[in-house]
Write a structure and sequence with these properties.
The chain is α/β, with parallel strands linked by helices. Helices cover 57% and strands 8% of the residues. It is built from 40 helices and 23 strands. α2 crosses α3, α4 runs parallel beside α7 and α38 packs antiparallel against α39.
Length: 993
């Protein structure tokens, strides 16, 4: 006789073992691109990550770091193993969730399960949980140290716990489980807030259990109350309580004159005292519901208490201390993610709306020795009321976003968008492109890992439309729509057999999918694909995939009354579906042998001279650098400066302190000149007759808060300006020459003055501090930029930087107009690439390199091309040929397909006499380009950036081949171009660089 409880437990743990083994076998061996580099670094040393933080995540993953046994190179691996384990537990609780739903569908009473019912439930749990195990988006997060694996675990265990609570009959046990669930919710706040989105759906479980005769009105009230619980936790408990404490703190310090912290102490005493009193009152008067609510709130706050780590560690001034939330004011800003700006949800402007006014909002305080000082105001932009709308979706007024809106909506320049356009964008882009496309990726199929890749289905499996470069892409996965079909079967069967639990899962599906899409209100372009945000919705759909097994059991049972046979057949029919998903997804989710995320960071740092200052542009350029410095201890003498953070006072202040082996950065401006609310933006207001101003003199005027720089405004605040776009820096040529800073072959380009010209109409605080750093540093420490920061700064420095590998060093030399590439210190750059660069695994075709890896590979190839061009200009053909062969050997086409940078190498290879290598690149790039253009034309797709580059590459190759005498190949490429584009003339837009 099968005992259900034992079978259910053992089968669940077996599925856990399978999932965890899969994730461990495919786990990334080091830090991945994007946030994992940051999270590993801050977990390792318990530092402060980007808002709103994840303190409980840091504490737990710090424990996984201990498993490295002191080997810094293994820290990332063990933290990634942490995600694999939490993901395995997510699958475990999904299995038990499916079997709990199945029991309700079968209306099985405890202890009365038949053998056939047990086998049916086990089949449903196995198929549904394994389908989610091998789903694209969840598997992606399961093998890297990011918050989404642990967040999914909390979501899964809370859903399971509520379903488990639903089976209880003892009120005392029920209340214990509710308090346990509250504690889980509180802990999850210290990881990610996705868990809170489940509360409205879980409120239905409570309603259906407590009210035997439910109706639509009651269900709606339950959903609303669940939403209220969500709002209370998300808007009142998390930021609200600290905000109240902050207001009291400001009042007690500024108005009453009490010491710092007095307001927080009083608030804490009142709140905790009130909570304790309420609990004792509920016990004394036997108020069971009140007692349960208050205890639940208490346990939520206990879980939320992990956030104390953020303030404690911020006050220790760790190396990574984002937003520096040391006091209650900065902590509130940190929690509210104020640095990320505001997105309108219910009412807002169209993207073409004109700004008509700025209304002074709430004051911004800063803690000073004399109290909390108002340094600025949260100004609220007021737009033309005729160009506002309810439910704004096309709201961003950024120029780049405006152009994308117009392109997606088919609007001509100057044509005004309508509310219909607003809704079209919501349905086509936000819901269609940013959710349903991701949904279909997971349950139907994915064309590739190229940017904005569409989903594919059954017809695509049998179609010959896909070119080789897509078919060979490891992320080209087709599940024949089978998971989708099973999920739909399960959905309808669930709705028919048990409407109550169906509504619960449907709300989970919608709340963590469609509703979340509407709440996030995505802009028209994101820096990367965001499918990982919606894994909770995919989790709910996996429940229906599991329930589809019960639907098939029910169908077979109409012809075969033996439930055991029906269960076995249904499981046998459906189990191949998750196995197909595993087979399709394995190669593009197996991250073994991938190191470029870390190696590229090492290569950036290796490209810098000792004691250097390296500017980076943003997250993906910076987080791997933080990892290799903070965890692996590599090149800690280099000070990494994130240009986007440099606009904040807290970050500039951190740059004035010694960090690891890096001395403080030299500035002439003091804290009073860059504190919050001071010199945040300096508008260019060119004075008549003033063509230029000395950079040192301008900084002196700023430091002294000179009236000569004051710009009048209508508000309470005064602002400084820049009186000329041309900021002239005088160079001590003799000092520079004596220090040997200038490469010998570039000495003829030395200048005694540099024009730090402002590109646009204003300087941000970060660029102001950059001017200060360049001026005050006086060539004592090397200053470098990566390619992203060079494109981001609003100072025109391109003609004054010398390439030394992957980085560009600022030097007092000016690039001549006739130079065909950037200035390169060939000896240093060549040595850095050939002797110091790490490119592990880049030559292995079995490794999976996604779009992010290919982008960084292209950066490396492009840098090597620049060095080769400079060597050729020096007539050093041998070293030029050697470094290009090094590039082709370390990053071959078979592992990472040739790209634009590879095509740009062709004329350089011709120049050194390596015609065979050049022709090989031409052949491979041309084949891919022709395939791509043909594919786009056959399928009626608009040419994207990749297709346009392919066209230009073909145009680029034709004259090169003709010049080298390869007329037959050139003629063939011409014919291909004419076949696609018609007879045309005109050269390529692509330069050899």
């Amino acid at each position: 006789m099968l005992e259900y409880k034992k079978v259910n437990n053992l089968t669940g743990w077996l599925v856990f073992l399978i999932a965890t083994t899969v994730y461990i076998l495919t786990v990334e061996e080091t830090a991945s691109f994007w946030d994992p580099g940051e999270f590993i670094a801050v977990s390792y040393k318990l530092q402060v990550p980007h808002p709103p933080g994840a303190p409980f995540f840091l504490l737990v993953y710090r424990m996984f770091a201990f498993l490295a046994m002191g080997n810094e190179l293994s820290v990332a691996y063990w933290m990634n193993i942490g995600s694999a384990l939490f993901s395995g537990f997510t699958i475990l609780f999904l299995f038990w969730t499916i079997t709990l739903f199945g029991r309700k569908i079968f209306q099985i009473k405890s202890g009365e399960e038949s053998k056939g019912q047990i086998l049916s439930l086990m089949g449903a749990g196995i198929v549904g949980s394994l389908a989610y195990t091998f789903s694209d988006s969840f598997w992606f997060s399961a093998v890297e140290a990011e918050v989404y694996a642990m967040s999914s675990f909390f979501t899964a265990i809370v859903i399971w716990a509520f379903l488990k609570w639903d089976t209880l009959t003892d009120p005392r046990e029920e209340n214990k489980w509710l308090i346990f669930i509250a504690y889980l919710v509180g802990l999850s706040i210290g990881v990610h807030l996705l868990n809170l989105v489940t509360l409205p759906a879980l409120a239905l479980i409570y309603y259906f259990k407590k009210y035997p005769n439910p109706n639509i009105k009651g269900a709606i009230i339950a959903l609303v109350l669940g939403g209220v619980a969500l709002i209370i936790i998300n808007n009142i408990v998390i930021p609200g309580l600290p905000s109240i404490a902050g207001s009291m703190e400001i009042f007690f310090v500024n108005s009453i004159g009490l010491p710092f912290g007095s307001g927080i102490v009083v608030f804490s005493a009142l709140f905790i005292g009130g909570l304790v009193y309420g609990i004792f009152y509920s016990i004394k008067h036997q108020k069971v519901v009140l007692n349960t609510v208050l205890l639940s709130l208490t346990f939520i706050l206990i879980g939320y208490g992990s956030y104390a780590l953020i303030i404690i560690r911020a006050n220790q001034n760790p190396v990574i201390n984002e937003n520096d939330p040391k006091d209650i004011i900065s902590y509130i800003s940190y929690l509210k993610r104020e640095q990320y700006g505001y997105r309108p949800l219910l009412h807002g402007q169209y993207f073409d709306a004109e700004l008509v006014d700025q209304v002074e909002g709430s004051p911004i305080y800063l803690k000073t020795p004399n109290g909390y000082e108002i340094v600025d105001y949260n100004n609220v932009n007021k737009y033309d009321p005729n160009r506002t709308t309810i439910l704004p979706r096309i709201y961003s007024t950024q120029e780049r976003h405006k152009q994308i809106y117009r392109s997606k909506l088919g609007l001509r320049e100057g044509e005004k968008p309508t509310f219909g356009d607003n809704l079209y964008f919501m349905f086509s882009h936000q819901l269609g492109h940013m959710y349903w496309r991701y949904f279909m990726w997971n349950f139907s199929g994915r064309e590739s890992d190229f940017s904005d890749a569409p989903w594919i289905g059954i017809t695509d499996f049998f179609s010959e439309k896909f070119p080789t470069y897509i078919k060979e892409n490891k992320a080209h996965n087709n599940y024949l729509m089978l998971p989708l079909i099973l999920g739909i079967i399960g959905l309808f069967f669930h709705a028919k057999k048990d409407s109550k639990s169906f509504y619960v899962n449907a709300m989970l599906f919608l709340m963590m999918g469609v509703v979340l899409v509407l709440y996030l209100n995505s802009p028209p372009v994101e820096p990367r694909e965001r499918d990982y945000i919606y894994v909770g919705s995919f989790y709910a759909f996996a429940v229906w995939i599991g329930i589809s097994v019960l639907a098939i059991v029910d169908f077979i049972g109409r012809f075969n009354k033996n439930l055991v046979v029906s269960a076995a057949l249904a499981t046998a029919i459906t189990l191949p579906v998750p196995l197909l998903m595993a087979q399709q997804n394995w190669d593009d989710h197996n991250r073994q042998g991938r190191y470029l995320s870390v190696d590229s960071a090492r290569n950036f740092l290796a490209s810098c001279a000792p004691n250097a200052i390296l500017f980076t542009g943003g997250d993906n350029d910076t987080f791997p650098l933080w990892y290799v410095q903070e965890v692996e201890g590599f090149r800690t003498d280099v000070r990494v400066v994130v240009l986007s953070y440099f606009d904040t006072d807290w970050y500039v202040e951190q740059m004035t302190r010694k960090v690891n082996d890096s001395e403080p950065l030299p500035f002439s401006l003091s804290y009073e000149n860059y504190k919050k609310g001071t010199n945040d933006v300096l508008y260019v207001y060119e004075r008549e007759g003033l063509d230029a101003i000395s950079a040192r003199e301008y900084l002196r005027l700023l430091k002294n808060n000179s009236d000569l720089l004051k710009l009048g405004t209508g508000g309470r605040m005064t602002y400084n300006m820049v009186p000329s776009k041309n900021l002239i820096l005088d160079v001590d040529i003799e000092k520079v020459y004596e220090q040997g800073l200038i490469p010998e072959d570039l000495e003829y380009l030395m200048v005694d003055q540099m024009n730090l010209r402002v590109k646009g109409s204003y300087l941000t605080k970060g660029n102001m501090m950059l001017v200060d750093l360049i001026t005050t540093n006086n060539w004592e420490r090397p200053i470098y930029f990566n390619n992203t920061s060079m494109a981001t700064i609003t100072l025109d420095l391109e003609d004054y930087v010398v390439m030394e590998g992957l980085t560009y060093r600022l030097l007092p030399v000016r690039k001549p107009q006739n130079m065909r590439s950037e200035m390169v210190n060939t000896d240093v750059a060549y040595t850095n690439v050939m002797e110091k660069f790490a490119l592990r695994g880049m030559d292995d075709p079995s490794n999976y390199f996604d779009d992010e890896f290919r982008r960084f590979t292209s950066n490396h190839r492009s840098a090597i091309n620049s060095i080769a061009i400079a060597l050729l200009d020096e007539d050093d053909l041998d070293r030029a040929a050697t470094i290009m062969k090094f590039s082709l050997e370390k990053m071959p086409h078979e592992a990472i397909p040739y790209d634009l940078a590879s095509g740009q190498m062709v004329p350089l290879l011709f120049e050194v006499g390596e015609d065979d290598l050049a022709l090989d690149i031409v052949e491979k790039v041309s084949f891919r380009s022709i395939e791509m253009i043909d594919f786009y034309q056959r399928t009626g797709r608009d040419y994207d950036r990749d297709a346009l580059i392919s066209i230009e590459m073909l145009k680029f190759f034709v004259p090169l081949l003709e010049e080298r005498g390869y007329t037959e190949l050139a003629s063939q490429l011409k014919k291909d171009l004419e076949r696609f584009l018609g007879p045309s003339s005109g050269g390529s837009l692509i330069n050899p660089r």
